[in-house]
Design a protein that fits this description.
Length: 94
């Protein structure tokens, strides 16, 4: 996820603040995702009314709230066990 300068704007915003105030001030800014983009306001609206104490609270909410286009390949995990028909890596004991 790339914030395209939104992070600078959010850091300069006065805190504590509400999601409503951030959406009013910065809601039309776009966040670049792995497969597209999304408006900052759309992401924050998913969580309803919130109060943010600092910019890091907003960044955490943004990371948690981006749509499925922000995660790359959906349902992919390189940590899934191999199936019986596959030759996977040899187990390592630590």
């Amino acid at each position: 996820m790339r914030l395209n300068g939104v992070d600078d704007r959010l850091e300069r915003h006065q805190y504590p603040t509400t999601s409503e105030e951030i959406i009013a001030a910065h809601g039309n800014a776009t966040v670049e995702l792995a497969n597209g983009s999304e408006r900052l306001g759309d992401v924050l609206e998913r969580f309803g009314d919130q109060t943010f104490e600092d910019p890091e609270d907003v960044f955490t909410t943004l990371r948690a709230g981006v749509c499925h286009r922000g995660v790359g390949r959906r349902f992919y995990s390189d940590r899934d066990p191999t199936t019986d028909a596959e030759d996977g890596p040899a187990p390592v004991s630590f």
